[in-house]
Every structure is written in structure tokens, then in C-alpha cells.
Amino acid sequence: MNYTQKHKISSFREKINRLIPIITKEVAGFEGFIIMRNDGLVISHFLPSGVDEYLFSAIAVSIFSLSQKAFSELDYGEIEYIVLHGLKKQLVISRVSREFIICFLVSKEVKLNFILKGIFEVIKKISELWEYNVP
Amino acid sequence: MKLKDIIVYYLLKTIKNVGISMPLLFRRMTDLMSKEIKKIEKILQLQPFSIANLDKLVHELVDLFVNENVADGINIKIVPNEILIDVHNCSYLYMSEEVMNEERKCPICLIALVASIAQTLVKDIEFNTVEYIVDTENKKCKIKVSFIRH
Fold first, then answer.
1. Average pLDDT across chain B, whole number
2. Among B86, B109, B126, B137, which one is most buried in terms of CB atoms within 10 A?
3. d(Cα A38, Cα A113) in Å, to the nearest integer?
């Protein structure tokens, strides 16, 4: 993790918050999202009320890092995204960059390829925000 | 070094071994402990902490370690957006010793943990990162716990 860019976190957070209306429309079946640094620091979120964003962030990062550990043990390289397909809903956890992870809450009815198309668009926008983020 | 020290070390090593990073564990512990600070005060039979004043709070929390002889000396300096801590002869230094740990760095710094708890308890401040340099030869640690102001 590159901690030298920590001064950029506040301005990055503000920019992501401004992007929330676009994120909610871009992803098919969107029901929520959270973006966090890979140590669990919550950058921004749009989660159902009553969900503890700090706990949820830690769980999502854990799922991603445990899965990455499994891939590493098998020498399968880096994970791009993980889909958790439940009986009621779906979760898609994806890497944004080396430092950030994003998790989307989506309805079960929408086909995965439509969901991923939107998610990749959002990730592209967020990556650009971070890359060109000047505090 | 005692058996319990080795067990604590291997507990942390196992958590890391299965894929949970220490910075993630550190942040989660910070959040949980700060949420349960009243319970901790009660268990340790302490006066309520000064959660309105970061400087005072950090000293109160670090003093707990001093009183328990965790280290010979702990110096704290608060600068804008950072808490700088110098520690001499920490009793957890064994976690960084080569015989124990090939990375020669404590998996989690407990003194940094209380600084991050202090940051979480004070309003309008959020814990950001922790960095530390361990000098096992001279038994000195330099800790930098940074925070974000809202």
C-alpha cells in the first residue's frame, strides 16, 4: 500500500461523494456500494440504513484478501473481481487499483454481464479520479 | 520470553497467513475497541477518558502502558495530522527479533493501537495510517500514527 499519498484521501473522498448519483445509475440492479482502501478505511459508501459501514468494509476487504491468498497459493495471479451470488441478492467485490477495493450490492434478477459492464465503467471513472487527484 | 508471548505472536502470524492483512486487523481492532471503550474503562476500573482532547487522551491511554511497565520510556509529540511516539525497550520487541520474525517488524504495534483508538474517539478526527521503524539492536521504536481531520 502506498501511504505516501495519504494526503490525497480527503479530496478523493469528496470527489467520490460527488460521483454517487452517477454510480447509482451506471450499474444495473444497483442497490448500494462501498469503496475502501485495502486496510479497510472507508472512502465513500451508499449502503442500506442500519449497515455498519466500518464492519462491512472490513468484511469485504477480508473476502477479497482471503480469495487473493487462495489464488496466490495456486499461482493463479491477481483477482480482478469476485461475485457472491445469493438466493436474494448479489455482491460484486472488485479491485479498483492496488490501493482500493469496491463492493456493489445488486439485485439477483439482473444478468451478471450487464452488472459488470456498469461496474467496469464506474471503476474506470474512479481510477481516473484517483490518478488525477490533486488535493 | 514466555510461552504466552510466543502464542500471541503465532496467533497474529496465523491470521496473516490465511490472508488477513495486519493493517486491516489493526483498523478493525481500533474500531471495535473504541466502540467498547466504556466497557474497557469499567473492566480496568479507570476514570472516563478525556475524549474531547486528543493530546490528553493519547497521554492517558499511553500512560496505561507505562503503568504496566510495557516500555521503559514513551515520548509523545502531537504535530498537525500526526502523533509521533518514541518508545524505548518495549516488552513486545520480541515480535521483531530475527529469531522470531524473518520480517523483523512487529505484526501489530500495541502502542500505535492506543494512539489510533484515541484518534477514533475524538470527534472530527479519523485514523489514517500507522508507520513504524523498529531498531531491535538499540531497543528503540519510532511510531507515526497519522489522522484525517474532517
1. 93
2. B109
3. 25
Q: Under 8 Å CB-to-CB from B90, ≥6 apart: which residues?
A: B70, B71, B111, B139, B141
User: Hey, where are the domains in chain B?
Assistant: 3-149
pLDDT, one tens digit per residue, over B51-76 is 999 999 999 999 998 888 999 889 99
ipTM of the complex in this document: 0.89
Q: Which of B126, B129, B148 sits opposite A3 (nearest CB)?
A: B129
B19–A38 C-beta distance less than 8 A? no
Q: What is the pLDDT of residue A7?
A: 55
Question: Would you call B27 an interface residue with chain A, using a CB distance cutoff of 8 Å?
Answer: yes
C-alpha cell recorded at residue A31: 442497490
| pTM over 0.95, yes/no | no
Assigned CATH for B3-149: 3.30.1380.20
Instruction: Identify whether the C-beta of residue A127 lies closer than 8 Å to the C-beta of residue A97.
Output: yes
Say whether residue B77 is in contact with chain A using an 8 A CB cutoff. Answer: no
pLDDT 10s digits, B130-143? 999 999 899 999 99
Domains identified in chain A and CATH numbers: 3-131 (3.30.450.30)
Q: Is A9 on the interface with B (CB under 8 A)?
A: yes
